[in-house]
Amino acid sequence: MSAIPSLRRSSRMVQRNLIVYKHTWRVIFTGFFEPLFYLLGIGFGLGGMVGDVGGIPYSAFVAPGLLATSCMNGAITDGFFNIWFKLHHQKTYDGILATPMRVPDIGFGEMLWAMGRGSIYAAAFISVVLLMGETAGPRMILSRWAILALPGAVFACAVFSAMGLCATTFVRKVHDFDIAMGLVVMPMFLFSGTFFPITQFPKPAQWLIQVLPLHHGVEMLRQLTTGAVDVGILVHIAYLALIGAVAFVVAMQRMERSLIK
Amino acid sequence: MPSTAEPFIRARNLTKRFANFTAVDSVSFDVQPGEAFGFLGPNGAGKTSTMRMIGCASPVTEGELHVIGMNPRTEASRIKARLGVVPQQDNLDAEITVRENLLMYARYFDIPGPIARRRADELLEFVQLSERANAEVESLSGGMKRRLTIARALINEPEVILLDEPTTGLDPQARHVIWERLYRLKRRGATLLLTTHYMDEAEQLCDRLVVMDKAKIVAEGSPRQLIEQYSTREVLELRFSDEVRAQLDGRLSGLADRIEMLPDRTLLYTGDGERTLEQVHTRNIPLESALVRRSTLEDVFLRLTGRTLVE
Fold it and tell me: Using CB atoms, which residue from A12, A92, A97 is nearest to B107?
């Protein structure tokens, strides 16, 4: 009996999370620095030895990958870990559900929050990448299409946040997080084409990688920042939208069942 | 309590089943506006499940339930807008401060900011937490958390307040503070529904109550009615040494309306405790101690279920 979320009620969750962040605002910087550190360490450090990839500087290749990865990591911190604790330990949602708020309002609200937070990180990261490229070089934003990388990143945040929400409903013990991080998130992070083109792998492995949502997030954003846009981007977007929608619906049904019982 | 007013809460054959057991088995009751209505029973009797169904936190399996004239199945949000809920387990928002808990809760009810701030301050005053307004929730004692949970439940000026074991786990002092606040709410005309396994709590606060045991309602009435109906006016509590106790057989017979042998004491139900005690003395039964007291709901419960209320 999952209802359609109300935007007004969902926005209450954003308000609530803003109050929490008022107390722990330092945490907000981790989401900004993480992709930046990767960029400095791998994009420049390693990139200096690698040279060009597919005709573009390595740092320009890796930057959009890191942008997509930071969307995923934000969703894991907020949507996967934090929500699990609110759901099972702090019982925060039980308290909220004694008001006119409904489960889909909470779920959608958490997703709105992830999008809002992600958009700030993405805007900051894109600005820094642009600035560094213009001043220190090599350039990493190669096309005006990059303007669309911001909404693209926000979209990716929404999709990953829905996936995080969905995944968290399957977690029974804290121990399950280790399994998910080690066996799902880690390989996705390494093999999705973030750091090197997936053509490095044999064909069957490539097919497998094409199932991973992060791969589509990386490719979508890479097309936009490098300007190598083709119709394939629509496939990436459609795939992400489908995964996100299914994850959200499943997440809401499972949350409803565990909260209203 | 006969009343012509539409009951605030109306349950008919209300049933809650989980996968492998029945938590609430076809219970029926009415709660009138302004009434303080209690569910008394041991753990696992079905009190919490009943409360959760009324609070729209648990779907009704079978039967009929109306809360303020509405159906929880289809109008949960509208019902919840007019309820105040104090759950058994505090579920305060641990990541924000005491006052923010109230302000944020007000937002969930769409209460505008200025009104929310005024009410939050009044309620903090009411539950004596004004000095802790900016404290972390985690720094509060159990009693303070409970009071904050009560304040939070009042932020929307609810017509019905659901209290699930409001004082379980609190020390006597903290319990009295909460009883006193609840009593004030009652005098202001609030409708209170509370579950408890403390008979003194039920006697102090409830106009009317139902005794629940094993998912069913086993008796209903005002505390006084229940005592009159199921118990005697007074109770003589006797304690014997183990040797005396082992050889009691029949020596107490005829002294009281009913005799209840508990592991630690023997209860004699009688109209006049002192007179019964004299008779025990004339029969030369050696006692370790004797106590005459008035009947309580505990005795009612014992009579109805053969078991004591708390553990």
Answer: A12
Q: How many domains does chain B have?
A: 2
pLDDT of B3 higher than 50: no
B240 and B129 in a single domain? The answer is: no
Report the number of distinct structural domains present in chain A: 1
Closest Cα in chain B, distance from residue A99 (Å): 5
Model-level pTM? 0.89
pLDDT digits over B84-114, tens only?
999 999 999 999 999 999 999 999 999 999 9
pLDDT of B2 over the 50 cut: no
Interface of A with B in 2-21 (CB under 8 A): 8-9, 12, 15-16, 19-20
Residues B265 and B187 occupy one common structural domain: no
Check which CATH number belongs to the domain holding B131 and give it: 3.40.50.300
**Which positions ≥6 away from A21 have C-beta within 8 Å?**
A27, A28
Is the CB of A100 less than 8 angstroms away from the CB of B108?
yes
Q: Can you give the length of chain B in residues?
A: 311
SS3 call for B30: strand
Same domain for B242 and B146: no
A95 at B interface, C-beta within 8 A:
yes
Asked if B260 and B269 count as a contact pair (C-beta separation under 8 A), the reply is yes
Do residues A47 and A57 touch, judged by C-beta distance below 8 A? yes
What's the gap in Å between the CA of A113 and the closest CA on chain B? 16
ipTM value: 0.89
Domain of residue B236, CATH code? 3.30.70
The answer to whether residue B310 sits within a structural domain is no
B137-176 pLDDT tens trace: 999 999 999 999 999 999 999 999 999 999 988 888 888 9
How far from A36 is each of A32, A164, B168, CA to CA, in Å?
Answer: 7, 23, 51
A175 touches B at CB < 8 Å:
no
Q: Would you place residue A1 in the very low, low, confident or very high pLDDT band (cuts 50, 70, 90)?
A: very low
Is residue B53 a contact partner of residue B60, using CB atoms and an 8 Å limit? Answer: yes
Of the candidates A16, A23, A259, the beta carbon closest to that of B104 is on: A16
Give yes or no for B105 touching A (CB within 8 A).
yes
B303 domain-assigned: no
Q: CA geometry: angle at B65 spanning B60 and B68, to 5°?
A: 130
Cβ-defined contact of B92 to A19 (cutoff 8 Å):
no
Using a CB–CB cutoff of 8 Å, tell me whether B55 touches chain A.
Answer: yes
| Rounded-to-integer distance, Cα A215 and Cα A231, Å | 16
Residue-wise pLDDT tens digits, B167-221: 988 888 888 988 998 999 999 889 999 998 888 888 889 999 999 999 999 999 9
